[in-house]
User: What shape does this take?
Amino acid sequence: MNDYGRLAQAFVGLADTLVADYDAIELSQQLIESSMALLPIAAAGLLIGDVHGELHVLASSSDETRLLELLQVEADVGPCLRAYRTGEPVIVDDLSIEPERWPAFAAQAAEYNYRAVSALPMRLRETRIGALNLFLTEVGPLSPTDIAVGQALADVATVGILHHRTMTHSDLVNQQLQSALSTRVIIEQAKGVLAERGSVDMDRAFVLLRAHARKTQQRLADVARAVVNNADTSAILAQEQI
Amino acid sequence: MNTHDSMDAKARFLAAVERVPDRADGAERLCAACVLALPVRRAAIAISVSGHGLEVLSATDQVAEQVEWTQVTLGEGPGFDAVASGGPVSLVSLAQADGRWPMFIPEVAGAGIGAMYALPLQVGAINVGVLDLYCGLGEFLDGQGFADAVAVSELLTSVLLAIGPGGRIPESLGPWWNQPLGTREVHQATGILMEQLGVDARSAYVRLQAFAFGNRQSLKDVARDVVSRRLRFNPDSGEATSSDPAAWT
Assistant: This one.
């Protein structure tokens, strides 16, 4: 499939999610996967701000501790935080130049061989809700087209998470963001149950959860909540070939 | 608004719990502490009951109590929405309800309340209830005030879980309580413990709290040990065993 085809497929997939009864986590995870498929990146993370203005990971390309920790370091001080606060993209072609800008983040990124990072703001008019973070193992700029695609994906996610194109009132935004973060908690709780019960790792537990939700046409959040409320998980754990 | 100031709000709340004159009902003390620590006039706590109901636990005064009972009886109101959505519901003034809660709003129109904030008391799927905060007529919370209210609601969730239904608040709550409700690992550890101990999510979380508190560790650190399987909980004895050789030295 050529580039155009893959791009179209990614957006059709996102549109499908929005039309169906979706939740913020499933949408965010699809967005991450689309970014990974479409852009020349090695890893991605989507972070949203809570009511205190602190960033939290809502979705990421892998559950590896090192990626999550790197994202968290960046959320404390790094391009991601800057993109969130300013509402402007922060593109760093070479993290080794100017390491004093974000020393902790640059050092940790180097350890994992991430040489460049692009942080794209998630915003809707005046409302800033977070940032999409893209890691590259090659030094050098993302092409303007790639940046535009990344920003378009981030914009779709923003609208999806805020549920309503015209919603900018901060109280409602707070409700949506805190609600999304709460859904993430439920998913982590469900992962714990599945991981222990099925003797699988957390990544696999998440894959099983998502696959089951899709297959049974339920919202990911609802499946996760049922697991934590002690629903029968044999069907979820019995899934193979995914 | 920033986290540092909100840490102060949690500290203010902990200090306020101690300052409130002792009352027979522990939950009343928590409500009173909210009003001391936050720029609000009244506070009430409602507890989630089976199904999708709420039961009033405590309120600072008759006005708050009356509004809470109205909400609970009608089965409609900001508190219910907060619990259902998992996010805080703000009503800056009753006049701005915009058609939401068509039975509740007219019933409480004459109560003399300004803004109302319903903050869910939850840890993911663990549903404790809701904290409803009320400002005076014409008053409402600014950004920092709102962030502080959310921080206090998290602390309250933690305390209510630890003391259990009908439990008593200890004389004072020390700095151990001033930590986040959870990290990713705390939530995963909750699920793991559910399975190891064969208990529900709430009991698993409370077990984690008790272990951390008893060992003077943060929830975060205990959770890390649980997720890495260095620490396992035994269903028969309820005890935890560590498989970290260093623990024995």
